[in-house]
Amino acid sequence: MCKRGLEQFLLNCGLTLLLVGCILAAAHERPCPIAYRCADVEEVVWSTDGSKCFVWRNGCHLKNENCQRLNSRREELREVTKEECQEKCVDACIEIYSPVCAEYNGVRRTFSHNCALEAHICRSGETYSLFGYAECGAN
What we know:
Strand order of the largest sheet: 2-1-3
Helix content: 40-55%
Order of helices and strands: HEEHEHEEHE
Number of helices: 4
Number of strands: 6
Oligomer: single chain
Protein backbone atom coordinates (compact mmCIF):
# COMPACT_ATOMS: atom_id res chain seq x y z
CA MET A 1 0.00 0.00 0.00
CA CYS A 2 2.82 2.39 0.87
CA LYS A 3 4.58 1.65 -2.44
CA ARG A 4 1.40 2.50 -4.39
CA GLY A 5 1.05 5.79 -2.47
CA LEU A 6 4.64 6.70 -3.31
CA GLU A 7 4.09 5.90 -7.00
CA GLN A 8 0.96 8.08 -7.04
CA PHE A 9 2.83 10.90 -5.31
CA LEU A 10 5.69 10.73 -7.83
CA LEU A 11 3.23 10.65 -10.72
CA ASN A 12 1.43 13.73 -9.36
CA CYS A 13 4.75 15.54 -8.88
CA GLY A 14 5.78 14.64 -12.42
CA LEU A 15 2.51 15.92 -13.87
CA THR A 16 2.78 19.11 -11.82
CA LEU A 17 6.32 19.72 -13.07
CA LEU A 18 5.20 19.06 -16.63
CA LEU A 19 2.37 21.57 -16.26
CA VAL A 20 4.68 24.20 -14.77
CA GLY A 21 7.15 23.58 -17.61
CA CYS A 22 4.42 24.06 -20.22
CA ILE A 23 3.29 27.31 -18.59
CA LEU A 24 6.85 28.63 -18.46
CA ALA A 25 7.47 27.61 -22.07
CA ALA A 26 4.29 29.39 -23.17
CA ALA A 27 5.31 32.47 -21.21
CA HIS A 28 8.72 32.37 -22.88
CA GLU A 29 7.09 32.10 -26.31
CA ARG A 30 5.09 35.26 -25.71
CA PRO A 31 6.52 37.13 -22.73
CA CYS A 32 4.15 40.06 -23.11
CA PRO A 33 0.56 39.03 -23.83
CA ILE A 34 -0.82 42.49 -23.06
CA ALA A 35 -1.99 45.17 -25.49
CA TYR A 36 -2.66 48.34 -23.55
CA ARG A 37 -5.57 50.60 -24.44
CA CYS A 38 -3.97 54.01 -24.67
CA ALA A 39 -5.68 57.31 -23.96
CA ASP A 40 -5.39 59.99 -26.63
CA VAL A 41 -3.62 62.28 -24.16
CA GLU A 42 -0.48 63.92 -25.50
CA GLU A 43 2.38 63.59 -23.02
CA VAL A 44 5.23 63.06 -25.48
CA VAL A 45 7.74 60.34 -24.62
CA TRP A 46 11.12 60.02 -26.35
CA SER A 47 12.92 56.69 -26.76
CA THR A 48 15.77 55.08 -28.63
CA ASP A 49 17.10 51.71 -29.69
CA GLY A 50 20.60 53.15 -29.58
CA SER A 51 20.67 54.25 -33.21
CA LYS A 52 17.29 55.81 -33.95
CA CYS A 53 14.96 58.21 -32.14
CA PHE A 54 11.31 57.22 -31.60
CA VAL A 55 8.64 59.68 -30.45
CA TRP A 56 5.42 58.49 -28.78
CA ARG A 57 2.21 60.34 -27.99
CA ASN A 58 2.45 59.02 -24.41
CA GLY A 59 4.10 56.31 -22.34
CA CYS A 60 1.31 53.83 -23.03
CA HIS A 61 2.23 53.69 -26.73
CA LEU A 62 5.87 53.04 -25.80
CA LYS A 63 4.75 50.18 -23.51
CA ASN A 64 2.80 48.62 -26.40
CA GLU A 65 5.80 48.90 -28.71
CA ASN A 66 8.08 47.31 -26.13
CA CYS A 67 5.59 44.46 -25.66
CA GLN A 68 5.66 43.80 -29.41
CA ARG A 69 9.45 43.96 -29.35
CA LEU A 70 9.64 41.45 -26.50
CA ASN A 71 7.30 39.11 -28.33
CA SER A 72 9.41 39.25 -31.49
CA ARG A 73 12.64 38.97 -29.47
CA ARG A 74 13.91 42.42 -30.35
CA GLU A 75 15.61 44.79 -27.96
CA GLU A 76 13.28 47.07 -26.01
CA LEU A 77 13.36 50.80 -26.58
CA ARG A 78 14.84 52.87 -23.78
CA GLU A 79 13.12 56.07 -22.66
CA VAL A 80 15.47 59.05 -22.96
CA THR A 81 15.35 62.84 -22.85
CA LYS A 82 14.22 64.85 -25.86
CA GLU A 83 17.75 66.15 -26.31
CA GLU A 84 19.36 62.71 -26.22
CA CYS A 85 16.80 61.36 -28.68
CA GLN A 86 17.15 64.27 -31.09
CA GLU A 87 20.86 63.53 -31.43
CA LYS A 88 19.69 60.47 -33.39
CA CYS A 89 17.22 62.24 -35.71
CA VAL A 90 17.61 61.69 -39.44
CA ASP A 91 19.42 64.68 -40.95
CA ALA A 92 19.16 63.88 -44.64
CA CYS A 93 16.56 62.08 -46.72
CA ILE A 94 16.72 60.98 -50.34
CA GLU A 95 14.85 63.50 -52.47
CA ILE A 96 12.46 61.11 -54.17
CA TYR A 97 8.84 62.24 -54.19
CA SER A 98 6.80 59.42 -52.71
CA PRO A 99 4.14 61.28 -50.72
CA VAL A 100 2.64 60.12 -47.46
CA CYS A 101 -0.31 61.56 -45.60
CA ALA A 102 -0.08 61.85 -41.83
CA GLU A 103 -2.43 63.13 -39.16
CA TYR A 104 -1.73 65.08 -35.98
CA ASN A 105 -4.48 66.31 -33.66
CA GLY A 106 -7.10 65.83 -36.37
CA VAL A 107 -5.19 67.73 -39.06
CA ARG A 108 -3.77 65.89 -42.08
CA ARG A 109 -0.57 66.94 -43.80
CA THR A 110 1.31 65.64 -46.84
CA PHE A 111 5.02 64.90 -46.48
CA SER A 112 7.23 64.31 -49.52
CA HIS A 113 8.13 60.81 -48.27
CA ASN A 114 8.21 58.71 -45.11
CA CYS A 115 11.73 59.83 -44.22
CA ALA A 116 10.60 63.48 -44.21
CA LEU A 117 7.69 62.55 -41.93
CA GLU A 118 9.99 60.73 -39.49
CA ALA A 119 12.49 63.60 -39.51
CA HIS A 120 9.71 66.12 -38.79
CA ILE A 121 8.34 64.04 -35.91
CA CYS A 122 11.82 63.66 -34.44
CA ARG A 123 12.67 67.37 -34.66
CA SER A 124 9.28 68.78 -33.61
CA GLY A 125 7.91 66.17 -31.20
CA GLU A 126 4.59 66.36 -33.05
CA THR A 127 3.32 62.79 -32.93
CA TYR A 128 1.94 62.43 -36.45
CA SER A 129 0.37 59.08 -37.37
CA LEU A 130 0.73 57.71 -40.87
CA PHE A 131 -2.64 57.93 -42.60
CA GLY A 132 -1.83 56.75 -46.13
CA TYR A 133 0.74 56.38 -48.88
CA ALA A 134 -0.42 59.24 -51.09
CA GLU A 135 -1.01 62.97 -50.88
CA CYS A 136 -3.64 63.77 -48.28
CA GLY A 137 -6.15 65.03 -50.85
CA ALA A 138 -5.95 61.68 -52.67
CA ASN A 139 -6.95 59.65 -49.57
